[in-house]
Write the structure tokens for this entry.
Amino acid sequence: MAVGSWIIIYFVPIIFIGAFFLLNLTLAVIKSKFTEEMAKKKEDKAKGLTKVKKIVSDKKGADDSDGETDNKGNNLLNTEEAAMTKEAIEGMTLA
């Protein structure tokens, strides 16, 4: 049984190295998935922000005579457009 005691010197490090390797591999996959999701959220946020800026600039540039104006003569968004803009902005926040 002298061979049995020498085998332990080989297999115990193999077990620990294998477990360390698998743990690192698992953590790397999880980190890459989180990184992809964060990049996707940032991209979606940028797209949404561009849409909101376009909507707001279109509304500011529009010269509607039937639109409401404040005391400085600026056109105000009607309530439906304001609600849509608010909803778009709220949708861009990260959960």
